[in-house]
């Protein structure tokens, strides 16, 4: 009359299974071990090594890294030239985020509120396909568009509006010799490449707004504008914040777009790349890399307090 | 707001926004057929298929493509194993530090790619690891884990926890349960996660520039062409092929997840 | 030898004592109910028998053998889950045949047994359907067949009728009872519905806060509750606090009295005077809620009894044998 005579027979796997049942911690360790080793040791270890290097400095005469704790490298970030890079990058990230939200909102709102059935699928793919299309190809497409002999100038010529663009390009700060070497060009490509990352979380947040709530606002006498400002926007805000995490972070760390379309003025990503590569100044590159980490840390902390993660 | 018809202004704005997102990509398809070699002239002076043949016979393109496929395959495989294990642990038990594990998985894509890239590069140089295909794979797998993880976690959440208990109740060991119950139930989520991870890896350039040494993946090859154009028509053709190759897994993932709660773009 | 026995079993989750020092014997062939509110520990006890949880302390024996170290797949116990837990990727036939497949039984034999099991739950011919194509009642029968086809010595049922509508539930109660009689194996089922427990079980264990309050036949727990909790939860009896009972009988113990045994008189002839706070018409009876000092009471009056009005002061009377003294304080 043994109860232990059930089907599961012996064999090493069955015995291992018994051991896992007796010790759920062992099971958890087996599940979590490999990913934690990979991400925890390799990835966090690398980040930590990076952080460590940012507290070293470089000997400007020998070009060798001095492995002694110092804050001198961080102080270098605040030289006018370097600080300028940080300000430029953060300003660009903020502008790109804002523009993505404004241009993306109608798409997200339409997809969440009005698109049904087949249109819904079409909208979804319409956002997903540009998001997943090759990043470099997208940048390349804009190189084609903004080229002097390219489609944009051809179109402007066709409708005799070339002078508008020329007038715009003669403006200080945003202008330049042509769109492809102006900050405006960089800005357009950034918005183009990162906007889908803003649309998806906005759409997710808007889908959670019950239509009846908007109708209630209308019933209570609100104009569409007022409904937007007092009801729709506050409810969509967590989605906007969630999306802005992507657009902001991606813009902060990008070094390829400004290198291909834009002026010779550097962004943080380019500074990191150049200091570690050509200049061999790993400590300064590391310190530069810590800047986006810090900014994103603050940003995520703020976003978490606004409940933006529920919209991810 | 009482009608279910969108206001005209909203329609126009949404359409314009979508056009802004799609027209530039469509442009690539036209340029692949242009007869113009030296500039980006629009409209194309003529159309030809010649550049497809030229590209076909370029060994450097083939090499880069093969490396990209190899890296994406291995990285996807690693990411599928790690992401699934992590998702299983997080969704099955409530252990101390669960939130931390989720954060750790998301971190490699939450932080800018340049940070991940230089962190890995400086770690390689500190540890005297020479650059190779494997250093590229290592970087790619790190940020692909989250894609598989997100898809698997969503599926685990929808799969009733009592299925595993039911299987064990009916006499199956953990391993039999894995084979006969868990894997069949999460298979599509894994395939979708794998496809998306593949697409992400196939297209990645920022981290790769830091971890690749002398080898060229297809995106690195394209980057070279963008910075220092050598033969523009070949680049045009490659760009078009890359768009098509990355879209296939995305469309596949979409059709597999239609009507479920898994969003194919989660957390790219 | 008892089929299942708990020996000072505890299961704690951190500081939560889900099951706290339970002693219990369930006999072979018994239809046994574990009854209690949610969070009372009854489901955890079932999971301890199945092997999904391990006791923090104490020991569980199945037919005399300790199963402390036996994982679920080594116990001759099968479970019908509350959500049925049918495998969504398998059809009905493969769901029912899962246990036999794992046990390595040949295909032909499996098919025969599965067909017989489906016939037993009156689902012959449903083998090719997917679980998603079945109604709630049908899923439940599949879950039952899937468990029984393995010929367990103990069948565990976790709120087996909870997800069914009222009519189906009554029908399934009958079916489960006759099935158990026919198979002669031990059924242990968990429920929070006292009516279900009373009508189906041979014996009932009433759980509260991780402990067993009383074990006994349905008549025992209904008419002779040991503690105020059982009186209230199982029988919806009136519980008179110890201090009040002391003034009535001289014994400082809580007592229970069934609502249908309370009689209402006018004036002050009765044992206790109370004020009527509400009346509701139930068809055959009228429910009267009353307040005597701080104690709230309920009386069920037959159709022909004179009805008081709200706000009346009445005197309550009962036969001395209807006042059931309990242990504990209330």
Q: How does this structure look, described?
A:
The complex is a heterotrimer of chains A (312), B (268) and C (330). Chain A has 14 helices and two strands; from the N terminus they run H-H-E-E-H-H-H-H-H-H-H-H-H-H-H-H. Chain A has helices at residues 12-22, 24-54, 72-76, 80-113, 117-132, 135-146, 151-158, 162-169, 183-207, 211-219, 224-253, 257-260, 268-276, 282-305, and strands at residues 57-58, 65-66. In chain A, strand 1 (57-58) and strand 2 form a beta hairpin. Chain A starts with 11 loop residues before the first helix and ends in a 7-residue tail after the last helix. Chain B is mainly alpha-helical. Chain B has a single domain, classed as MetI-like fold, CATH 1.10.3720. Chain B has helices at residues 8-31, 50-56, 59-92, 98-110, 113-126, 133-158, 162-169, 174-203, 206-211, 218-227, 232-257. Mean pLDDT of chain B is 85; it is low at 261-268. The longest helix of chain C is centred in the middle third of the chain and has 18 residues, at 166-183. The radius of gyration of chain C is 24 Å and the shape is elongated. Chain C has 330 residues and is α+β, with helices and mostly antiparallel strands. Chain C is 28% helix and 31% strand. Chains in contact: A-B, A-C, B-C. At the A-B interface, helix 1, helix 2, helix 4, helix 5 and helix 6 of A face helix 1, helix 3, helix 4, helix 5 and helix 6 of B.
For the record, the CATH class of chain B is: Mainly Alpha
- Structure summary, number of beta strands of chain A: 2
Q: How many strands in all of chain B?
A: 0
Taking the sheet with the most strands of chain A, its summary is: 2 strands, antiparallel
Number of domains of chain B: 1
First CA to last CA of chain A: what distance? 56 Å
Taking all residues together, what is the mean pLDDT of chain B?
85
Structural class from helices and strands of chain B?
mainly alpha
- CATH class type of the largest domain in chain A: Mainly Alpha
Give a concise summary.
The complex is a heterotrimer of chains A (312), B (268) and C (330). Chain B is an all-alpha fold. Chain B has a single domain (57-257), classed as MetI-like (MetI-like fold, Orthogonal Bundle), CATH 1.10.3720.10.
Give structural attributes.
heterotrimer, B: 268 residues, mainly alpha, MetI-like fold, 11 helices, globular, disordered C terminus, C: 330 residues, alpha+beta, Rossmann fold, OB fold (Dihydrolipoamide Acetyltransferase, E2P), 6-stranded mixed sheet, 5-stranded antiparallel sheet, 31% strand
């Amino acid at each position: 009359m043994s109860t232990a005579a059930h089907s599961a027979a012996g064999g090493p796997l069955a015995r291992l299974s018994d051991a896992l049942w007796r010790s759920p911690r062992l099971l958890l360790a087996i599940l979590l071990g490999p990913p934690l080793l990979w991400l925890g040791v390799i990835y966090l270890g690398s980040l930590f090594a990076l952080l460590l290097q940012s507290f070293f400095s470089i000997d400007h005469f020998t070009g060798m890294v001095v492995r002694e704790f110092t804050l001198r490298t961080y102080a270098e970030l605040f030289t006018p030239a370097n600080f300028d890079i940080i300000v430029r990058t953060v300003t660009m990230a903020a502008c790109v985020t804002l523009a993505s939200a404004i241009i993306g909102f109608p798409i997200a709102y339409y997809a969440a509120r009005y698109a049904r059935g087949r249109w819904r699928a079409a909208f979804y793919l319409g956002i997903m396909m540009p998001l997943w299309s090759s990043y470099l190809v997208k940048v390349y497409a804009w190189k084609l568009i903004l080229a002097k002999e390219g489609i944009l100038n051809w179109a402007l010529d066709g409708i005799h509006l070339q002078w508008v663009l020329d007038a715009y390009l003669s403006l200080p700060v945003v202008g330049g010799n042509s769109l492809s070497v102006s900050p405006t060009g960089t800005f357009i490509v950034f918005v183009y490449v990162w906007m889908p990352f803003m649309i998806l979380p906005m759409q997710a947040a808007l889908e959670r707004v019950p239509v009846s709530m908007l109708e209630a606002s209308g019933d209570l006498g609100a104009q569409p504008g007022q409904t937007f400002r007092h009801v729709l926007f506050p409810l969509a805000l967590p989605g906007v914040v969630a999306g802005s995490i992507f657009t902001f972070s991606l813009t902060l760390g990008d070094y390829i777009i400004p290198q291909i379309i834009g002026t010779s003025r550097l962004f943080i990503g380019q500074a990191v790349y150049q200091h570690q590569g050509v200049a061999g100044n790993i400590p300064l590159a590391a310190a530069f890399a810590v800047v986006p980490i810090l900014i994103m840390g603050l940003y995520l902390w703020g976003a978490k307090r606004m409940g933006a993660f529920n919209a991810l | 707001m009482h009608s279910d018809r969108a206001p005209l202004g909203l329609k126009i704005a949404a359409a314009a926004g979508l056009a802004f997102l799609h027209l530039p990509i469509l442009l690539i398809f036209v340029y692949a057929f242009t007869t113009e070699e030296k500039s980006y002239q629009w409209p194309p002076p003529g159309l030809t298929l010649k550049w497809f043949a030229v590209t076909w016979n370029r060994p450097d393109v083939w090499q880069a493509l093969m490396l990209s496929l190899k890296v994406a395959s291995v990285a996807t495989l690693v990411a599928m194993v790690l992401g699934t294990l992590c998702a299983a642990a997080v969704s099955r038990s409530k252990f101390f530090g669960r939130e931390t594990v989720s954060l750790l998985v998301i971190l490699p894509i939450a932080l800018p790619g340049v940070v991940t890239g230089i962190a890995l590069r400086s770690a390689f140089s500190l540890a005297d690891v020479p650059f190779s295909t494997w250093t590229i794979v290592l970087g790619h797998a790190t940020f692909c884990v989250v894609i598989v993880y997100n898809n698997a976690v969503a599926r685990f959440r929808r799969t009733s926890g009592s299925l595993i208990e039911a299987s064990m109740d009916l006499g199956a060991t953990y391993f039999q349960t894995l084979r006969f119950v868990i894997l069949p139930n999460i298979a599509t989520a894994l395939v979708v996660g794998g496809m998306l991870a593949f697409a992400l890896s196939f297209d990645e350039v920022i981290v790769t520039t830091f971890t690749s040494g002398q080898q060229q993946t297809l995106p690195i090859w394209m980057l070279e062409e963008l910075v220092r154009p050598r033969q523009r028509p070949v680049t045009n053709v490659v760009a078009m092929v890359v768009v098509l190759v990355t879209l296939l897994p995305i469309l596949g993932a979409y059709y597999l997840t239609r009507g479920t709660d898994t969003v194919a773009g989660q957390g790219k | 030898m008892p089929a299942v026995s708990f020996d000072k079993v505890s299961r704690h989750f951190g500081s939560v004592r889900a099951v706290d020092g339970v002693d219990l014997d369930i006999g072979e062939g018994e239809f046994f109910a574990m009854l209690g509110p949610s969070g009372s520990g009854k489901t955890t006890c079932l999971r301890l028998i199945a092997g999904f949880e391990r006791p923090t302390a104490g020991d569980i024996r199945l037919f005399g053998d300790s199963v402390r170290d036996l994982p679920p797949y080594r116990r001759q116990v099968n479970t019908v889950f509350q959500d049925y837990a049918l495998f969504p990727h398998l059809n009905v036939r493969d769901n029912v045949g899962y246990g036999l497949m794992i046990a390595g039984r040949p295909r032909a034999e499996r098919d025969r047994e599965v067909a017989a099991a489906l016939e037993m739950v009156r689902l012959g011919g449903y083998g090719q359907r997917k679980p998603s194509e079945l109604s709630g009642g049908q899923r439940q029968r599949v879950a039952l067949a899937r468990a029984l086809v393995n010929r367990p010595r103990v069948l565990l049922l976790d709120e087996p009728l909870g997800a069914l509508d009222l009519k189906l539930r009554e029908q399934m109660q009958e079916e489960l009872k006759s099935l158990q009689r026919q198979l002669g194996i031990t059924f242990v089922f968990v429920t929070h519905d006292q009516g279900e427990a009373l009508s189906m079980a041979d014996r009932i264990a009433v759980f509260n806060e991780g402990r067993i309050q009383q074990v006994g036949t349905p008549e025992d727990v209904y008419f002779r509750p040991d503690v105020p909790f059982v009186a209230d939860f199982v029988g919806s009896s009136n519980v008179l606090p110890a201090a009040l009972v002391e003034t009535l009988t001289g014994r400082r113990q809580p007592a229970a009295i069934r609502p249908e045994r309370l009689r209402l008189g006018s004036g002050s002839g009765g044992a206790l005077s109370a004020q009527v706070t509400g009346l509701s018409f139930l068809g055959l009876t009228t429910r009267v809620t009353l307040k005597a000092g701080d104690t709230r009471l309920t009386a069920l009056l037959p159709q022909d009894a004179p009805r008081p009005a709200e706000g009346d002061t009445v005197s309550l009377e009962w036969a001395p044998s209807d006042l059931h003294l309990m242990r504990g304080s209330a």
